[in-house]
Amino acid sequence: MNTNRLVKVAKAVFRPERYRAWHAVLFWLLANGASGISLGRRREDRRFYEEMEQAPFAPPGWLFAPVWALNNISVLWGNLRLLNDREVPHRGALLWMQGIGWFLYASFAYVYFRKRSPILALASTATFWVLTIASVVLSLRGGRRDLALSQGTLLAWLTLATPTAAYQAAKNPDELFGTRPWL
Fold first, then answer.
1. What pTM was estimated for this model as a whole?
2. Where does the pLDDT of residue 9 fall: very low under 50, low under 70, confident under 90, or very high at 90 and above?
3. 179: three-class secondary structure by DSSP
4. Other beta carbons less than 10 A from residue 64's beta carbon
5. What structural domains and CATH numbers belong to the chain?
6. Residues 107, 115: Cα–Cα separation, whole Å
7. What's the distance, Cα to Cα, between the start and end of the chain in Å?
8. The dihedral sign for the CA sequence 171, 173, 179, 180
9. What distance in Å separates the CA atoms of residue 165 and residue 170, rounded to the nearest whole number?
C-alpha cells in the first residue's frame, strides 16, 4: 500500500464523517416534500398515468414507488460518500450534477401530474438520464467505482423511463402546451 493511500485511509478512520445517514434521510424527506405529492392526489395521479397511452414496454404504475425507494437509497449512499470525501476527483462537477438531479426528481411530479405535461416530463427525464450517465462516467474516470455503482439502479431505471417518456410525449396531449399527440 503506498503512503498516500495509507494517509487517506488513516484520515478516514480517525476523522469522523461530517455527513451521516440521518442527513440523507432528512434530505430525502425534504426532496419528497418539495415534490408536492400529497396523499389526497395520489389516486388522481395514478388515474392520469393509467389513462395515458403507454409504451408497450412501460412499467406498471405500482412499480414506481419501490423502484424509486431503491434508487434513492442507493444514490443517497453515494451522495454521502461524495460529500464526506473531499479528495474525490471531479467532486465539484459531481456535486452539481447530483444537485440538479435532485431538483429534477423533486420537480417531476409538478411538471407531469400538476401541469399535465408529458413534454416537460420527457425533458426532465431525459436531462436526468444524461446527468446520471455523466455522473457515472466522471466517477469511473476518477477511479470511484463505488460512486458509479451508487448510480446503477437509477441509470437502469432512467434508461427505461426516457424512451417511455418519449413515447408518452408523442402519443398523448399536453395540457400545459395545449398540444395534441404528435403521432
1. 0.86
2. low
3. strand
4. 14
5. 18-171 (1.20.1260)
6. 11
7. 60
8. positive
9. 9
